[in-house]
Amino acid sequence: MTTARPSVHATAPSPRGASDPRQEGPPDLRLAGPALAAWAAAAIGLGAPGGGVAMACAVGVVLAALALRVAVLRRRAERGGGGEYEGTEVCEQYEVDERDDEYGEDKENEENDEYEEDKEGEQSGAGAGAGAGAGAVTGTGAGREAEGGAGAVRGGAAGRAYRPGSSRRWSSGAWAALAAVLLGAVAGAASAALHAADVRRGPLPDLADRYARVTVELEVTDDPRLTRPRVRGSQRTPAAVVFNADAVRVTAPDGAVTAVRTPTLVLVRQGGSDEGAPPGGASSAGEGDRPDGRSAPTAAALSEAWRGLLPSTRIRVVARAVPPLMPGDQVAAVLRVDGDAPPVKIAGPSVLQRVAGRVRAGLREATDGLRPDARALLPGLVVGDTSRVPPDLDAAFRATDLTHLLAVSGSNLTIVLALLIGPPHLATRAERRGLAPRLRLSLRGTAVIGGVLALAFVVVCRPDPSVLRAAACGLITLLAIGTGRRRSLLPALAAAVLLLVLYDPWLARRYGFLLSVLATGALLLLAPRWSAALQRRRMPPRLAEVIAAAAAAQAVCAPVIVVLAARVGLVAVPCNLLAELAVGPATVLGFAALVTAPFVLPVAQALAWCAGWPAEWIAGVARTGAALPGAEIAWPGGWAGALALAAVTVVLVPVGRRVVRRPWLCVLCAFALLLAVCRPAPFTRVITGWPPPGWRAVVCDVGQGDGLVLAAGDGTALVVDTGPEPRAIDRCLTELGIRRIPLLVLTHFHADHVDGLPGALRGRSVGAIETTTLQDPPGQARFVRETAARAGIPLVRAVPGERRRLGPLSWEVLWPPGSPFAPALDGPNDASVTLLVRTGGLTLLLLGDLEPPAQQALLAAHPEVAGVDVLKVAHHGSAHQAPPLMHRLAPRLALISCGADNPYGHPALRTVAALRALGARVLRTDTDGAIAIVGTPGRLAATVTGRRTGARLPSGRGGGRGRGRRRGRRIRRRGQAGRGRPADPRLRAGRRRPAGSGDRRRARACTSA
């Protein structure tokens, strides 16, 4: 009788089977239960009252003791009931397996088995697509006992009952496992309660509740980092230096001094004092502005002094203590420090931190001469230093789910340890490679030196969640090497999670740690199975392993990313596969530059130059993928959205198995995905109706800001303002097919009108940038000048009376005035460039952000302007409007550009009511999405990307009330709107959409007769 061959041999191309077989078996999950229990208990215990946690721990200990007692009794009963012989036989079989592995019986097959398992772990770690811990040492540390036959036998023996009829009851192993889970939960909760008590201990929490000004001695615990400037309203908040520190000595306002050990978050404001500012209020200064009159170099020097602080440095600060954002946060208080002076150092950093800081600084110095992307990216790939990564590159990495490359993980530690032990599958054998055998190191000596390297890796790369997880897994693997035991991957991961959660329970609430563990678990459990399935369909092994690793990591991490970003990336797996080609060379050469920089800087610079080429490839992949119109789609956020995406993934996986069996279906699905990602204009127009044919003007949905596009021919447009965020305006222009911008007008220099400028310039030909005459705010005006200079685009200033024509488009500059006798401009809003545009017989007036005094002056200076077809309402529809101007203009269609749920209440209800009273149809981007104007004066129409407006616009031009204007009827679900009132444009259904969202519904149109 012929025995069926194992699948690993049956699918091999050779008739003799696989040369490096991987024996299949159930995973060893005995430590998974205690690790998950400790994780969950720690996450809950951090926010629970201490008394409740203590009571729960006591109950857990009692239940665990009872479970252990039952396990002991059940074990004795099993041995006394005739199962002893069987159990002994199993144990003897396991010992034989161990001896076979250790002393060489059946050595060829055993070595091939281990080699295949280790090689698979290496390849899975190298191909990890989306997890922060994709290439951990756990993926390269040899032989997966959990998936071998011995581990399966032992696991089955531990939980099997031998007495007749006992299959209906729990075995001794099950009771022991329950006890381990309870003890893990107790340990996690107890550790969490102790760490949470540190946050509540001392006077600092009470002082923060009173917003007191205190003097604090701090010990820095991580590297200071510079926050990204953000747009709040019309201003850009100044950058701030942020770092974590432990308060060791607190001096209260009454002079009381207390020695404590309390974690805090320090926020060093670079824009001046926070005295008198409301909590969370934004500074009115732009980036680089100095209200106190200091020069920019002085401000830069102060910022560099704060950012140069190393962990373990002691400083003294005078700060305002405020409560943390979330009640259960890891810090007791946020200390707001004025960055008007350099930090006062009490004690320098430790020797270890000085050496680590010098090594990191050496790598930055070695990369100074590289191109911008390589200079920014290489330190992040090697040691996780992202201080040079610009906002646009950071956004591209997030859009393509490549941020794990900047979070140092197991793949980096693998490279370090491979120099010592060589290929991990040979680490315990006579054939081992690397430096260890050349230095004649024993296994124990190798393990000790490897542990030192792992700890040095943590110090240099800083203890981020993925770094800690990789180091813990690596230390456990090294311990197995030093003791001569088998290395097992899943138990090592579970043990690492358990130890780290007990050491630092706050990791249980950190998404980075969750992503790292999920990605590594996916590489160990899902990737091998998916890779085998692809290889059975004749895919090359290496390609199958890389694709399976990237897809598995992305599948398990995507639901967590949805919780954080409310989006799903469609290009994550392809971008990870393309980036993987360059990750290895860039990291190896970068580590070589890191090691040589403190000793021979020219050699380090040469190595960094070589590493710069693959680093630029990675940056190019990220930028190209993020620039695709369908790079990501919106998805409901929160845990409900995560569960929905997980359910969709579970459904799609079996569907995908059937699809790969039919080549024509694979080609069809690939083509559909390509269309969804690239979104060619004809295809998008057919599916969504956007952009509508013959559009004249579009108000882009850029959030709380302005961004308008006026058609001037095929792929050509006049752009007025760019909104607060580059990606939103870039996406809008891409959807409209705009490749050429002869003139880009910036009405004034507020951040909500100019900060999106890099997005408008990206990949497009721009002839000139026209700005207002008032260079205020100075920091944002300087930003425009520098951006234009880098792109080689000339700057011109608007001149009143200036007339231009571009294809079917013509316009005239009405404001700001150029005469020295003109009224003084009261701030940047009143200096807004105002355009009167004519296209296709339609008249459009774009008011920028003019305030009522400037609106009245405009009315007086241009009495001929009246009866426009379309009005871009000033200042996002705020309440500050001049009624006489509105009556004079009497627009048929009023457009308001504002962000959903903005804190300013834009648009004002009375402004909307006044426009409707004049017979205008009001459309707004916060509820309607992007708005396109189409048609002619006789048949004016508007198409929106949000929900349906459903009303016809009034026809004819002119007047306010009683002017005989024709009213349009409104299409409603219930009945018909009354005839004696203007059509109500408010929308009754649908949802609000985020600015610049790529998730487009089919465009809706409202037309006039």
From TrEMBL:
Keywords: Cell membrane, Membrane, Transmembrane, Transmembrane helix
Lineage: Bacteria, Bacillati, Actinomycetota, Actinomycetes, Kitasatosporales
UniProt xrefs under Pfam families: Competence, Lactamase_B
Record-linked NCBIfam families: ComEC_N-term
Domain Metallo-beta-lactamase positions: 704-875
UniProt-listed InterPro entries: ComEC_N, Competence_DNA_uptake, Metallo-B-lactamas, RibonucZ/Hydroxyglut_hydro
Name the UniProt record assigns to this protein: ComEC/Rec2 family competence protein
Localization in the cell: Cell membrane
Coiled-coil region(s): none
Biased composition (Basic residues): 960-976
Low complexity composition-biased segments: 275-286
Chief localisation class: membrane
Compositional bias per record (Acidic residues), positions renumbered to this chain: 86-120
Topology relative to the membrane: Multi-pass membrane protein
Positions of region (Disordered): 1-30, 81-165, 269-298, 944-1009
TM regions (residue ranges): 36-68, 173-194, 402-421, 441-460, 466-482, 489-507, 513-531, 543-566, 633-655, 661-678
Keyword check for Cell membrane: yes
Compositionally biased spans, kind Gly residues: 124-158
Native species: Streptomyces endophytica
Entry superkingdom: Bacteria
